[in-house]
Amino acid sequence: MPTPRLEIDFGKIAHNAKTLKDLYGSKGIDVIGVTKVVCGDPAIADVLLKSGITILADSRISNIKKMRDSGIDAQFLLLRTPFLSQAEVVVKYADISLNSELTVIQKLSHSAVEHQTTHQIILMVELGDLREGLMPKDLDNTIQQVLKLEGIELVGLGTNLACFGGVKPNEGKMEILSSIVRNVEKKFGLILEFVSGGNSANYNWFMSTKNVGRINNLRLGESIYLGCETLHREPIPGLFTDAFTLVAEVIESKIKPSLPYGEVGQDAFGNIPEFQDHGPIRRTILGIGLQDISISGLTPRLDIDILGASSDHIIMDTKKIELKVGDELKFNLNYGALLAATTSPYVIKKQVNG
Ligand SMILES: *Cc1c(COP(=O)(O)O)cnc(C)c1O
After folding, report:
1. Ligand 1 binding pocket includes 160 (Cβ within 6 Å)
2. What is the per-residue pLDDT for 353?
3. In terms of domains, do 269 and 142 share one?
4. How far from 223 is each of 20, 53, 282, CA to CA, in Å?
5. Is residue 236 part of a domain?
6. Residue 22's domain spans which residues?
7. What is the pLDDT of residues 125-146, one digit of tens each?
């Protein structure tokens, strides 16, 4: 079989999605399935829908378009704040979008009216992670403006934590969001359908909280695909952590010194590498490199060390394990490696256990 390839176990993804939907559902929280790390793959989107998820979310409108064009029948949420230049396609392909800029919402309104449709928005509230979101003090004023706009329906408030600043979505942060929601609902006489408290990092809060407050929604990617929460990257009990496997092929395998010899200058990426001498080792080269994958996010399933990589090669010390040319080697991937692998046109995607 051709390599490098990413083997995707559809059965394991389905199991994870169902398990998480039931778990969060037990306290009244609905799960939106996030497809960005799989580039909006319609076949995986279909697995999520068959597991009981009804809303799919992606950060890119091109991925949402791809899923729609492939006949995926779901509600679609655009995760990344729409670009001003995208208003028209956003209204066309996404049912809902997450927003934090009034100018953008005004343009969405304009496009929605032009196309005689209604676009739903969730306003994002900044709670300290410092990526997207309105500062809480600006919320009332923005909502006042939004409620005047034709073609726009405010359906919820949301927040995103643990992405840029690493700020934990803990009890305190979730209580703040709930209390903001209560105030907004009271002040404007609204009932917000979505109170979207975060992402895969919300697992620990969810497990420990006695009261989820007004939070009724989470947007989950990583925990569905990799089976872990994302504050400590601990596996979530009952989930598969190996739904994705990267398979690469040995293209050279020899006993060679551990220390490069000769006069040393820069390597392929402008660094001056440093090595220690461990004597001769089993040096094995794989036919995959930095153009395909993020090396730091790979964990070999065998007891071997990754020494480094260049554009097209990974160099390993296979220690006690003897590998020969043509052998295949399997790796677990973290989120970054998975993102790179799904995005790379050089990595073949192969469905297993459908
Ligand atoms: C990517 C993303 C998510 C999903 O995050 P995971 O950690 O993969 O669960 C949720 N919300 C927003 C706004 C995102 O960009």
Report:
1. yes
2. 87
3. no
4. 8, 14, 36
5. no
6. 10-226
7. 999 999 999 999 999 999 999 9
Cα of 111 vs centre of ligand 1, distance in Å, is 26
Give how many domains the chain has, as a whole number. Answer: 2
Does 109 sit in the ligand 1 pocket, CB within 6 Å?
no
**Residues 39-76 pLDDT 10s:** 999 999 999 999 999 999 999 999 999 999 999 999 99
* Ligand 1 center–CA 86 separation, angstroms: 21
| Probe target for ligand 1 pocket from 80, 96, 199, with the most ligand atoms within 8 Å of CB | 199
CA distances from 99 to 37, 107, 279 (A): 21, 12, 57
CA dist., res. 17 & res. 139, Å (int): 33
Instruction: Determine the Cα–Cα distance for residues 225 and 48; give it in Å rounded to an integer.
Output: 10
Write out the two tokens for 192: 């917000």
Report whether residue 126 contacts ligand 1, using a CB cutoff of 6 Å: no
Bridge partners (DSSP) of residue 213 are none
The reply to whether 259 and 305 lie within a common domain is yes
- Quote the pLDDT of residue 108: 98
End residue of a domain, out of 226, 252, 283: 226
**Does the C-beta of 59 come closer than 6 Å to ligand 1?**
yes
**What's the CATH number where 155 sits?**
3.20.20.10
Q: Are residues 165 and 273 in the same domain?
A: no
Decide which of 167, 195, 226 is a domain's last residue: 226
222 and 248, same domain (yes or no): no
